[in-house]
Structure formats: structure tokens, C-alpha cells
Amino acid sequence: MSTVLLASFVPHLSQLLPHLIGQFGGLIYLGLFALIFIETGVVILPFLPGDSVLFLCGSLAAMSAHSLNIWVLIALLGAAAILGDSVNFEIGKHFGSSLFRIKQLNHFIKPAYLKRSENFFKKYGKPAIFLGRFVPIIRTFIPFTAGMGKMRHRDFIIYNVLGATSWVFIVLGAGYFFGNNVIVKAHFELIMLAIVVISLLPAAIVTLHHHGGAANVG
Prior knowledge:
The chain is mostly helical and 218 residues long. It has eleven helices and no strands.
């Protein structure tokens, strides 16, 4: 259900965000900061369209008609991503086990998501903090999982900073340099949906592999 809602919302971002920029001006930076922070820092909201928003912001920053500044975006949204993961890590460290006892949260903090993140973390170790940044849902649950696993805070911070800055820089940069390409502009809504689909593919493959393995066992 959440994926369907996300897919229906994303195509409208290209009209909604410019409208909000025109209405609120520089205050839009605060909204963008909050969105990236919430997607990475609030474990019950892993479905926010972070990749699509970053790509769109990069493409708008490349246009002289819009007031977004690419360097301000890189600094501000990079800080939001770092801070979000740090908060998520602390939530997992101090409250992780307790949250699973709250039945109302089971619709958001699904055991399947946590298990997927735990497997990802076991497979890649510390670099999972960096690699998970590029996979939706996983990027929200990985810091939470690391916190629950009592990962050393210094190690977490190093990979958190590297992952956050790389993710923001790469996706914003892709939007900045390619978002206003004639072909991309002509099919911008499809490109935005493609970003969502491509970014969800790793999680979908893992899920299919898991169900396939379970079927084989049965």
C-alpha cells in the first residue's frame, strides 16, 4: 500500500516543488531538510521519496528560473541525512527492543524489514552503513539495526558521514547535470518513477530470493 501511494505521489513532485518554492521562497530549504531528516531518522516512515526529491532539487537548482542553490542543498541536505541516521541509531540503541512490544507500531516497524536489514548488515558489516544509504527502506532500518546491535559509535559516525555525503552529492549531482537534458525533461515524470522503481529493485530482489528459499525449504 505504501509503495502504491509513493508511486502515485512522485509524478506530481515536478509540479508541486516549484509551486512551493514560488510560494515560500527560502523557507523551502527547511521543508527539504525536514523531509530528508524524517526519511532517514524516523524508523516508522521509510517510504518517503528521498531519491526522487534529491534528483528533482538538483535539476531545479540547475535552472536560473529557480532560487535553489546546489551548494546550499548539498550542505543542508547532507547534514539532514547525517543527523537523521544519528538519531535513528540512538533510537535503535536505547529503544529498539521496546518499540517491538508496541503493537500499534507493527504496521510500520515490520519484522520483515528489520530482518532484511539485519541480513544486509551481517553480509556487509560496517560498510553496510554506507551501502545501505543507496537502498530505500534499508537506509532507514540499517542505522536502527546498528543501534540495536550496539555498534561502536565512532565506527557508525565514520560510515554515516561517508554514506550521507556520497548519497546526497551523487543524486543531487545527477539531477543537476542530467535533469534538464531535453530527453529527461520530455519524460520527467517517467524518469522520476524509474528512479523509485530502480531504487526499490534491490529490496524486491532480496524479498523474492527470501520467498524462493522458503518455498524450496517447504
